[in-house]
TrEMBL record:
The chain crosses the membrane at residues 294-317, 344-369, 381-399, 437-455, 467-488. It is a multi-pass membrane protein. Its main location: membrane. It catalyses: ATP + protein L-histidine = ADP + protein N-phospho-L-histidine. GO terms for cellular component: plasma membrane. The keyword Secreted does not apply. This is histidine kinase. The keyword Disulfide bond does not apply. Gene3D superfamilies: 1.10.287.130, Histidine kinase-like ATPase, C-terminal domain. Keywords: ATP-binding, Cell membrane, Kinase, Membrane, Nucleotide-binding, Phosphoprotein, Transferase, Transmembrane, Transmembrane helix, Two-component regulatory system. Residues 556-764 form the Histidine kinase domain.
Length: 784
């Protein structure tokens, strides 16, 4: 019978049974993998298939490094001219007063042969017979032994080692065996381990070098191509390696075997992980890979059981709530129609009852069937199974509610949140905070009291008390975390609003906040901020547009006026060349030329004022000697002032005062001020020019004010000054309302704009008929 022909209820039962069965298979596979672990690695044996990244590889590498340094230490002891020298001294012992003897390697081999030992090709001694008749056992103090070549003893010193000649000889032969084994394994025969140890004596005239290596061409760059490597320089505490670790004694052994007094030495060692040679590394790699096969059965169980358990769970997730195949309606069971919180409590109580029943029945049955050493594990398995079944039933109940759309709408929390949202609508922040705090305190107090009551008053088993109390504590923790989330969310919203206000206050009028990140009162506040931002942006754009139109209008009109005006001036000049004798016509030409030049000046001033006020002038900042510039201006206007009997009195310090400004624009400022004084000062009066330098000071707000050059020009006005000082810097405004003198009324406005463009200050003071203008510029730092 095909599975699809079964009823939906039968399909659900079969899928549920298969889910539980293969879930058990999955955990059996995990247990199999751990129980068959020979290296203590567990499931990572399957996950990690690279032998070079294991601890076994690292330990073998460090053992070989230790053997290499042991070989280096024994090399001068056992070898001469690149071969083992049997004539070299291997041992010195004192057997009595004036009875000190030295033994060569040949002597030791001969002595051991008389003692019944046989030497194989690896210099390994094996006892094969009884000692010869002429052999005798000798005992004495060790003065020096090849097994410890860097130690010297004296029989007169307390604690000096005493041993038999046989034992010491066996120790020396064992050291020779290790030395020769290292030589055969790493130097005489091909090996996957490549190494080079070099000691260099740079202080000697010949620059000697001692090298121990099985690959003379080894370099730091070459060693990195082998796979796993280590580079230890002697002149640094740091080393370069891609191994998991390097033995701590490696660095000290490298330094201890240095035959010179310099620190110029290094170790290069690397393993060719392609394993072209059969040696201990390739054999260990093969053994490692074969050990992984022990995990295949467990891994197959894990994957098979896990996949089928997941597939059956996914099938149950899909069909849960559906009564028939192809039916899209969701059918709720009777307990699914209760409130969400009631369902959670009900299934929790069912799970608790199942745990109690498990303890009273199933655990006791397990104690009767299983041996005592398996009781603890069986109890954990049974409790876990009961808890999983209860959690599974609760999960599918919540899933059916979710599909039906009642998991939230059918909860007490949803109903109460609706009531609270109705209450909070239109409430102030103060009211919301007060009510929320009272509700928070009441719920917390209730949960803590319930936990204390369950812990102190319920007379059930410890497991039940722990479970109930734990559930209440979890509910309390969940509630407090939810409150924290709400507070954190509101804090984030307030920070976003504060950031938006900071951006607006900084002039970023186009800044907008994302309204999707807000709710409640914060949403209304964020929407209002966006409206303010849009209003400011619109107003700013209109202002910029208006200023641009104004500038364009002034430029265009000035250009249109300037073209015919130039023609008028040119034709006046041509008429004057006609040698006209009529005085009346000449007067007309004078007036026409005067008014045309005045209109030309007005047009040029208008364009300059527009550019200066809008900041569209390109400045060429340089170091300016301000005092010298003022004296030059005085010279330019001296003759002009004399025509109106104006006396120029200048007071300036002798030191050079440098400022950073545009010389041409600064001259224009001074020219306008001097022209203004020439036009409006009382005839036969004095014009005072003062130049001073202020020191570095601190403002009332605590800010450090730099030293400044202050230029002041003062004169007595010929006409009453019935106007404020700030109005004189407006366009087309002059001190005399009647405008009886020539001038455009733009001079002071241009001077102020040019001064401010150069980071200066322009101030006008009026005291009766006294007119005073003051300019301030920061002194260049090098001039302070």
């Amino acid at each position: 019978m095909k599975f699809s022909r079964l009823s939906m209820q039968a399909q659900k039962l079969i899928a549920s049974a298969l889910h539980l069965i293969f879930l058990t298979v999955m955990f059996a596979g995990i247990g199999t993998m751990y129980l068959n672990d020979n290296f203590g690695i567990g499931i990572t044996r399957v996950q990690n298939t690279v032998y070079e990244d294991t601890d076994e590889f690292t330990r073998q590498f460090n053992r070989d490094l230790n053997d290499i340094f042991q070989y280096i230490e024994y090399n001068p002891t056992f070898e001469s001219g690149g071969a083992i020298d049997v004539s070299k001294k291997m041992l010195q012992m004192t057997f009595g007063p004036n009875e000190t003897e030295s033994f060569s390697l040949a002597d030791i081999i001969s002595y051991l042969q008389t003692m019944g030992y046989q030497l194989n090709e690896d210099f390994q001694c094996n006892k094969v017979s009884a000692p010869a008749l002429e052999a005798k056992t000798r005992e004495g103090y060790i003065d020096w032994s090849a097994s410890e070549p860097k130690k010297n003893y004296s029989y007169l010193i307390p604690g000096t080692r005493r041993a038999t000649l046989e034992d010491v000889s066996l120790e020396i032969m064992e050291s020779l065996h290790q030395y020769y084994s290292t030589y055969n394994r790493l130097l005489a025969n091909p090996s996957n381990l490549h190494f080079k140890v070099e000691y260099i004596d740079q202080e000697s005239s010949t620059k000697r070098a001692t090298i121990f290596a099985n690959d003379q061409e080894l370099t730091p760059d070459v060693i990195k191509t082998y796979g796993k490597y280590a580079y230890l320089p002697g002149n640094s505490v740091f080393y370069d390696t891609n191994l998991k670790s390097i033995a701590l004694n490696t660095v000290s052994a490298l330094a201890a075997n240095n035959p010179y007094d310099t620190k110029t030495f290094y170790l290069l060692a690397g393993v060719d992980t392609s394993y072209p040679v059969v040696d201990v590394y390739s054999e260990n790699r093969d053994a490692y890979l074969s050990m992984q096969h022990y995990y295949i059965s467990g891994f197959v169980l894990l994957v098979t059981g896990g996949m089928i358990a997941v597939l059956t769970l996914l099938f149950l997730l899909k069909v849960s709530g559906h009564r028939n195949v192809g039916d899209k309606t969701i059918t709720l069971h009777g307990f699914d129609k209760t409130s969400t919180e009631t369902g959670i409590v009900m299934f929790s109580l069912m799970t608790l009852a199942g745990l109690v029943l498990c303890r009273l029945v199933l655990v006791r049955i397990a104690h009767l069937v299983l041996p005592e050493e398996s009781w603890a594990l069986s109890e954990r398995v049974l409790y876990t199974a009961v808890f999983y079944l209860g959690a599974l039933l609760l999960f599918f109940s919540m899933l059916r509610r979710y599909k039906a759309g009642t998991i939230w709408t059918g909860s007490f929390v949803c109903r109460w949140s609706e009531y609270l949202s109705i209450f909070f609508t239109g409430q102030s922040f103060t009211t919301r905070l007060t009510v929320s705090f009272l509700a928070y305190a009441a719920i917390n107090t209730s949960l803590i009291s319930l936990a204390w009551f369950l812990w102190d008053r319920i007379y059930l088993s410890k497991t039940a008390v722990y479970a109930l109390t734990g559930m209440v504590i979890l509910a309390c923790a969940a509630f407090n975390l939810w409150i924290f989330y709400l507070m954190f969310k509101h804090s984030v919203e307030h920070d976003m609003i504060s950031t938006a206000i900071e951006h607006l206050s900084a002039g970023e009028t186009s800044y907008q906040v994302n309204l999707d990140d807000f709710d409640g009162k914060e949403y209304e506040l964020a929407a209002n901020i966006n409206n303010i931002s849009m209003g400011l942006e619109t107003a700013l754009q209109e202002k910029v547009k208006s200023e641009r139109l104004k500038t364009d209008l002034i430029t265009n009109v000035s250009h249109d006026i300037k073209t015919p005006l130039t023609s008028i001036i040119n034709y006046v000049g041509l008429i004057r060349r006609e040698n006209i004798q009529d005085e009346k016509i000449l007067r007309y030409l004078d007036v026409l030329e005067q008014k045309a030049n005045r209109l030309k000046t007005l047009t040029e001033d208008l364009v300059e004022a527009s550019k200066a006020s809008s900041g569209n002038l390109k400045l060429e900042i340089s170091d300016i000697n301000f005092t010298q510039l003022v004296y030059q201006t005085n010279g330019e206007f001296e003759e002009k002032f004399a025509s109106r009997h104006l006396e120029l009195i200048t007071t300036a310090p002798e030191e050079t005062l440098l400022i950073e400004a545009d010389g041409r624009r600064l001259w224009r400022v001074l020219e306008n001020l001097y022209n203004n004084a020439f036009k409006y000062a009382m005839e036969s009066s004095r014009i005072y020019i003062d130049i001073t330098k202020t020191d570095i000071s601190v403002s009332e707000e605590g800010l450090l004010l730099p030293a400044q050059v202050v230029f002041t020009i003062k004169n007595v006005s010929a006409n009453p000054l019935n106007i404020r000082g700030d109005e004189l810097t407006e366009r087309f405004v002059r001190g005399d309302v009647a405008r009886t003198t020539e001038g455009s009324g733009l001079g002071l406005s241009i001077a102020k704009s040019l001064t401010e463009l150069q980071n200066g200050r322009f101030e006008i003071y009026i005291d009766g008929d006294l007119f005073k203008v003051q300019l301030s510029f920061d002194v260049k730092k090098a001039n302070l």
